[in-house]
């Protein structure tokens, strides 16, 4: 069974960037194969990884309603198309949920993704899920067992409080989480003493383990503006080195 890592946090905190850095860390340190899952309907993890997505699971689900060949069992067709939806890369594969059909709830699309994950994850050592903002979506995915929940916040007391509230949803959603971590992203250097105190007090109160701070990165901003993947971030980059140390601490 793969080690399951789920990322959560409100929009704009750099959650997807953190997911891409984590995937790069797992691949470059030989911990693959990795299955990366973009479970956010507003999918952009592939752009940070430099991959092109031809097919999403939402599209595969729609095909099951109209395009199953008469000579093929529905289950066999689904398995074939899910594997075709995988974007294969060196050391990892990417699966994108995409938009569901028509207006309304995402529940059916999440249910379909859940079935696909159950079939696929046995072939990987790590499963990294970039989740939509909030936690309810992990419940809909039937990811009731998570080894590491990494909640990403920005460097503000309001952001840290929101992250703590997201993590607190673990209990009412009946998720079984091995470790809950808080990562504060885009932090100033040095970190203000008042912010650091608030972060640590909040973690202690909410049962979170504080993983650390990641600094603001002009280099990442430049790559995103130029629409270049995070693989182009130099190995000696300060943020990359810090992120790798934090991921190593999380997974030791």
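Q: What amino acid sequence fits the structure above?
A:
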């Amino acid at each position: 069974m793969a080690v399951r890592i789920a990322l959560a946090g409100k929009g704009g905190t750099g959650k997807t960037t953190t997911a891409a850095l984590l995937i790069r860390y797992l691949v470059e340190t030989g911990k693959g194969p990795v299955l990366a899952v973009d479970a956010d309907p507003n999918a952009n993890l592939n752009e940070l990884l430099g991959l092109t997505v031809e097919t999403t699971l939402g599209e595969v689900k729609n095909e099951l309603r109209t395009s199953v060949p008469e000579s093929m069992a529905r289950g066999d067709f689904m398995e074939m198309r899910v594997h075709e939806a995988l974007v294969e890369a060196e050391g990892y594969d990417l699966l994108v949920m995409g938009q569901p059909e028509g207006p309304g709830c995402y529940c059916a699309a999440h249910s379909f993704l859940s079935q696909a994950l159950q079939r696929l994850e046995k072939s990987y050592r790590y499963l990294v899920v970039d989740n939509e903002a909030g936690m309810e979506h992990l419940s809909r995915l039937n990811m009731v067992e998570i080894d590491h929940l990494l909640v990403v916040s920005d460097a503000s007391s309001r952001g840290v409080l929101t992250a703590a509230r997201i993590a607190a949803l673990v209990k009412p959603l009946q998720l079984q989480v091995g470790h809950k971590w808080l990562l504060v992203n885009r932090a100033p250097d040095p970190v203000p003493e008042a912010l650091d105190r608030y972060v640590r007090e909040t973690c202690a109160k909410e049962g979170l383990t504080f993983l650390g701070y990641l600094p603001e990165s002009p280099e990442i901003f430049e790559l995103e503006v130029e629409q270049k993947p995070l693989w182009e971030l130099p190995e000696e980059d300060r943020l990359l080195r810090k992120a790798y140390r934090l991921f190593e601490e999380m997974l030791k």
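Q: And what stands out in the fold?
A: The domain at 3-251 is CATH 3.40.50.300 (Rossmann fold).
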